[in-house]
Amino acid sequence: MPSRTASCSCGQLRIEVRGEPLGVGVCHCLACQRRTGSVFAALAAFAAPYEVTGTATEYVRTGDQGARFRFRFCPVCGTNLFHTEEGYEGSSVAVAVGAFADPSFPPPEDSVYDCRRHSWVQLPPGIRTYDKDPA
Predict the structure, then answer these.
(1) CA angle at residue 90 from 85 to 95, to 5 degrees?
(2) Fewer CB within 10 Å, N side or C side of the chain?
(3) Radius of gyration of the chain (CA)
């Protein structure tokens, strides 16, 4: 089974995932915009198991529908690398697509919180859009 490694900017924090992504998406919610410093977050979900190397600092945020997400970032360079949903840590992980540093990474299939998407952001053809979170 193929593996991929995503890393923070300084290399101190890494996550290795196996297999193909369960899904790739972008989120335009205001919390993701603030968290990433960009106009959206690009994330890829992977099934467990995954292996983390290095030390992470954590931040827990409650989503609009009450789910709690535990974000992990590097305490040295500040890169927001991955997150899990509380109660599902053992089943999947969401990793920042840019942290793979792989321009051939699969494109997003879904776009959530389209109601917050900046008007100048163009999405790939055929992407499914949701006004908010469909979960």
Answers:
(1) 55
(2) N
(3) 14
From first to last of its 135 residues, the chain has per-residue pLDDT tens of: 789 999 999 999 999 999 999 999 999 999 999 999 999 999 999 999 999 999 999 999 988 788 899 999 999 999 999 999 998 888 999 999 999 999 999 999 999 999 999 999 999 999 999 999 887
Structural domain of 43: 3-99
Are 101 and 81 spatial neighbours (Cβ–Cβ below 8 Å)? Answer: no
| The total number of structural domains that make up the chain | 1
CA distance 46 to 58: 19
* 107, part of any domain: no
In a domain, 44, yes or no: yes
Can you give the CATH number for the domain in which 8 is found?
2.170.150.70
- Backbone dihedral angles phi then psi of residue 95, each to the nearest 5 degrees: -115, 140
